[in-house]
Amino acid sequence: MTKSYGSYGWLPRVSVAGVALVVLALLATLPAIAPLWEGTTAPETVWLPVAAGLIVMWAVTPPDRRNAIDVRTRDAMKGHPIVRELVWLVVFLLCFIGGTVALSLLFRAVSTDIPFVMAVPAVRVLFLFVMAVFFVDRAGFTLDGHGTAMPALAMGVGERWRWIGLVPIGVALVLGARTMHPLDVPDPRLLLLVAVVAFTAIAIPEEIFFRGMLQTRLELLLGRWGGIAVGAAVFAFTYAVMKDYVEVAPRGIRHVDHPLITSFATYGVLGVLYGYTWSCYRNIWLNVLLRGGTLTLAVAPTLRLIG
Q1: Under 8 Å between Cβ of 66 and 201
Q2: How far apart are alpha carbons 261 and 135 in whole angstroms?
Q3: Distance (Å, rounded) from C-alpha 266 to C-alpha 187?
Q4: Cα torsion for 27, 30, 34, 35, to the nearest 10°?
Q5: Are 57 and 104 within 8 A, CB to CB?
Q6: What is d(CA 141, CA 71) in angstroms, rounded to the nearest whole number?
Q7: How many distinct structural domains can be found in the chain?
Q8: Torsions phi, psi of 44, nearest 5?
Q9: Do the beta carbons of residue 215 and residue 278 sit within 8 Å?
Q10: Going residue by residue through the chain (307 aa), what tens digit of pLDDT does each one get?
């Protein structure tokens, strides 16, 4: 009998319903949360949409189809030197962090008229997309001959069931939008600009890196939930370190001035939903839609102040 990703690795199998219940329990057990993004709080803006998205995704995704896509993923990754590729990915992640800080400081030193956040998209695309794809996937194909079947699987989504994730993604985004936009809608032109930047400069390179490349390899070593958990932790830790240099950052938890706690309460929790979406469908376009939509919702309230 074919094993699923959840059957591999040292981490025990955990049901998504249990994970969702843990997320919901945070609503009652963690301390009060100060506004994270313009007038919103973590329970209503992050935890509730994530919990709802996880439950709906678990309910609508056929387990046999998900297990079948796991088999195809393992077949696509055959021949890959997983540990060596993970080392390369960590190197590029560190280069992204260091390069962003260095270039931002350079921009500040040269001119105060240059927004330092302009450094982030260029460095992100370079290290999390161009370098990662070239040295991990393309270089492996050229030097080792292990093939590039995984990118084809992730981007060439022909099966209709692999788009079922639009339903839970829609639920999560609608719940987030209801809490983040209780008042007027921002200027549509500014909102469109933010959406373009969110999708092209952040969501596409980061979802390919954190989910498509990093989490896939972690799942092969640690199992489904091991890969999701470690991938989400790396994602949250990255944003904790980058808190002063990223385009969008939560403000913090009341009475707790610690970027790591804030990052895990937001990016870490969101990373579980992003990771589960990738694990269920191996459809990078769903992940990009979810991430880009979340980022757009996070920034949109501030646009009302600009407009």
Answers
A1: no
A2: 33
A3: 26
A4: -30
A5: no
A6: 21
A7: 1
A8: -80, -30
A9: yes
A10: 444 454 444 444 455 556 555 555 554 444 444 444 444 555 567 888 999 999 999 999 999 999 999 999 999 998 889 999 999 999 999 999 999 888 888 877 776 665 656 678 889 999 999 999 888 876 555 455 566 788 889 999 999 999 999 999 999 999 888 766 545 556 677 778 888 888 998 999 999 999 999 999 999 999 999 999 999 999 999 999 887 777 666 655 444 456 788 888 889 999 999 999 999 999 999 999 999 999 888 777 665 544 4
pTM of the model: 0.85
Using CA atoms, how far apart are residues 211 and 52, in angstroms rounded to an integer?
20
Exposed e or buried b per residue across 164-180, where buried means at least 16 C-beta atoms within 10 angstroms of its C-beta: bbeebbebbbebbbebb
Question: What are phi and psi for residue 256, nearest 5 degrees?
Answer: -130, 100
Domain of residue 264 covers: 5-306
- CA-CA distance, 69 to 177, in Å (whole number)? 31
Sign, CA torsion 93/259/215/43: negative
